[in-house]
Amino acid sequence: MPRETRENTFLITHKPNIIDALGKDWFDVKEGEASIFKPEDGKYRLVARVQMEDWPKLVAVK
């Protein structure tokens, strides 16, 4: 269903769920890792995989 507003949606899950949803290519997902997707044409495109140790760097960017 199309979003009416420009909001971000966060889904928090565990490694087994990610592998079930996205396939065996995600076997190397790490604790605290974030996968960022962008909706495009009714599908989702992977934009970035951000590791836990890199989160402070993102907060520092203004």
Query: What is the typical, i.e. mean, pLDDT?
Result: 85
Proportion of strand residues: 15-25%
Q: Please tell me what the overall shape is.
A: globular
Sheet with most strands: strand arrangement:
1-2
Order of helices and strands: HEEH
Number of helices: 2
Structural class: alpha+beta
- In which range does the helix fraction lie? 10-25%
Distance between the termini: 32 Å
* CA-based gyration radius: 13 Å
- Give the oligomeric state of the chains in this entry, treating copies of one chain as homo and distinct chains as hetero: single chain
Overall strand count: 2
Largest sheet features: 2 strands, antiparallel
Uncertain ranges: none
Please summarize what this structure is:
The chain contains 2 helices and 2 strands, in the order αββα.
